Amino acid sequence: MDRLFAEIEARREEMVELCRELVRIPTVNPPGEAYAPCAELLGRRLAQRGFEVHYLRATDERADSDRFPRINVVARRDGKTRGKTVHFNGHIDVVPAGDGWTVDPWAGEVHDGRLYGRGSCDMKGGIAAAVIAVETLVDLFPDLPGALEISGTVDEESGGFAGVAFLARKGVLSRPRVDHVIIPEPLDVDRVCIGHRGVWWAEIETRGRIAHGSMPFLGDSAIRHMGALLARFEQELFPRLAQRRTAMPVVPEAARVSTLNINSIHGGQPEGLDGLPSPCVADSCRLVLDRRFLVEERIEDVRGEVVAILEGLARERPGFRWQLRDLMTVEPVLVDRTLPVPRTVAQAIRRVLGREPAFVCSPGTYDQKHILRIGRLEDCVAYGPGILDLAHQPDEFVIIDDMVASAKVMALAALTLLEEGRLQG
Q1: Catalytic amino acids?
Q2: Domains plus CATH for the chain?
Q3: What is the pLDDT of residues 370-408, one digit of tens each?
């Protein structure tokens, strides 16, 4: 293993430069910009190492368009003998940069051992580390059994439906083609992520009656009805959720409870071109909620307690009318830590870092959900460089030493899995 680790260490600057190239391509989602050039960058590079490269566009997905095509890249290199397939999957999309940066979010600047930029942590640093890991493996061990795969997929930040879900439905990222999956999400270099909380996104609309703003008593304000719902959430739902704790090892500690976030509220008539509001009573108000729930909870109950509050308000509050629309539901995921991938990644962490790994669960969902539910492939974890709390923040960065360490862990884990596959075959 000393040879493997030394070779990855020697490719440190190459790894940094690859990550910088990836950061400089602003693959912002929404709307889904620059997916093609980012996928092609990865594809061209891996083709030089003998990988068979395919670009797969999710044309049947709603988000796909000619302006913003949903293009995924999948590269595969088969060994000379049959065996298992180890797949590294990383999402190439990033959230908008937002305000508050002290460095250029698209420059990939390097300062004091850190590489800054939107997506450096979540998760282009992980993709760069995985690419260096597989390249080093095929350079040093060209006769490895089985196959190595690496993919760059889209839209993870908006659910992953045109990315990993699409590939899983097409049989590309599922059994029997793939046996083991590592997703280099930023969970820190000494953690193995074996699952995540569930999520329910929904839109609630309250209805009212339009009238002149100078005579609101002739109308019925949908915004006031929404205010009553928010008050009921504060009085009843938020305190109830704060009392629920999970046995899942969710990080950070504060995320081991059920949570609810109000993503957005839209109400009333739109402002005119002069920026002044329409003098009307709002006849509609819409709220989007983001409910994260635990493996101990059932989605029927999660949805039901919100419906119960809405029905209660309809009985108690004159004129209260509402509609609820489900946007997305993902069940919690928790895989067995004794499966080959979590076990092998943990062993590699011990070897590379010399300390005991932690098994954790993510507070938010990631593409493991599609690999498990659609691909029917349970032997999957998230492991990669990056500090989870930095994801989506201004001045996002990844520590270069962590990229190198995680590349060593991923390379050793893949090597072990392929060699074990040879013995079993």
Answers
A1: 93, 156
A2: 2-196+332-424 (3.40.630.10), 201-330 (3.30.70.360)
A3: 999 999 999 999 999 999 889 999 999 999 999 999 999
